[in-house]
Amino acid sequence: MEDKRILYVSSEVVPYLAENEVSLLSYDVPKMINDQGGQIRIFMPRYGNINERRHQLHEVIRLSGMNLVVNDLDMPLIIKVASIPKERIQVYFIDNDEYFKRKATFSDEEGVLYPDNDERAIFFAKGVVETVKKLNWVPDIIHVHGWMASLLPIYMKHYYKDEALFSETKIVTSVYSQSFEGSLDAEMINKIKFDGVPQDAIQELELPNYENLIKAAIKHSDGVIIASENVSGSLTKFIQSSEKPFLPFASKDKFTEAYTNFYKSMLS
User: pTM, whole model, 2 decimals?
Assistant: First the structure.
């Protein structure tokens, strides 16, 4: 994978958040490609429970300062950056006081999902793409991890479809069993339609629960990786019937070869 450019867009990444399936793989896969001589960038939200001082996050003034429109509201985009110690891997953080200041990731102390998680996901997707455009860094592959990042394939295929920068870029989505209870705001589909995404492309989001978010992401991806051993039967069936190239689950000791070969097949 030498010199190939891979952009990792994830809901969660260690060491910035606690270890779980998504956060661990969102570190292990980029590290593996980095070790192979690939060029990588990682993007994640800057949640309020990330310790900025300990992880040495700092704002990148030249990338910050633009406003993103979410559901007809102007929201300022702040970009922060940090390096994973010892790995020489740069991580970019998408930040906005309104969406990411609170002291938890997806839900409050009672475990209730934040009511604006849908808007946070829209802001995150747009923030990533706008920042990559500013960096003028053209990824060969964009690899999406976790449901907070799941709108990125949709925005790439519709809202940013005419961006010449990404004309050759392939989108890969990893599907995990890690989900959330209930569903996001019922107005989510209308907020995405506001950005010119046609209703029939995102009809799953009429009920924006975990499984439907992931189905919409799969529909707009060029390839799919089953990243958990116990992905639900209905999602597995959906992946198989989507006719997209997909990689079955590969265990920790086999994932290096499996992921590398899958990337190469996406680029051939």
Answer: 0.97
Judging by beta carbons within 10 Å of its beta carbon (0-12, 13-18, 19+), is residue 216 exposed, middle or buried? buried
Name which of 12, 29, 25, 170 is nearest 93 in CA terms.
Answer: 12
- 34 and 68 in contact (C-beta within 8 Å)? no
Judged by DSSP in three states, 177 sits in coil
Quote helix, strand, coil % in the chain, to nearest 5. Answer: 35, 20, 40
In angstroms, the CA 264 to CA 252 distance is 19
What sign does the dihedral 171-175-178-180 (CA atoms) show? positive
Q: How far apart are CA 10 and CA 42, in angstroms?
A: 8
pLDDT digits (tens, 9 = 90+) for 164-215: 999 999 999 999 998 899 999 999 999 999 999 999 999 999 999 999 999 9
Question: What SS3 class is residue 264?
Answer: helix
Q: Which amino acid is present at 185?
A: D
pLDDT band at 86 (very low <50, low <70, confident <90, very high): confident
- Identify which of 81, 77, 82, 72 has the alpha carbon closest to the alpha carbon of residue 98: 77
Cα separation, 9 vs 96, in Å, equals: 17
Residues 9, 143: Cα–Cα separation, whole Å: 6
Say how far apart CA 212 and CA 147 lie, in whole Å: 10
Sheet of 5-10: strands edge to edge?
58-59, 78-84, 89-95, 39-45, 5-10, 141-145, 170-175, 223-226, 246-247
Closest CA to 57 of 69, 68, 66, 48: 48
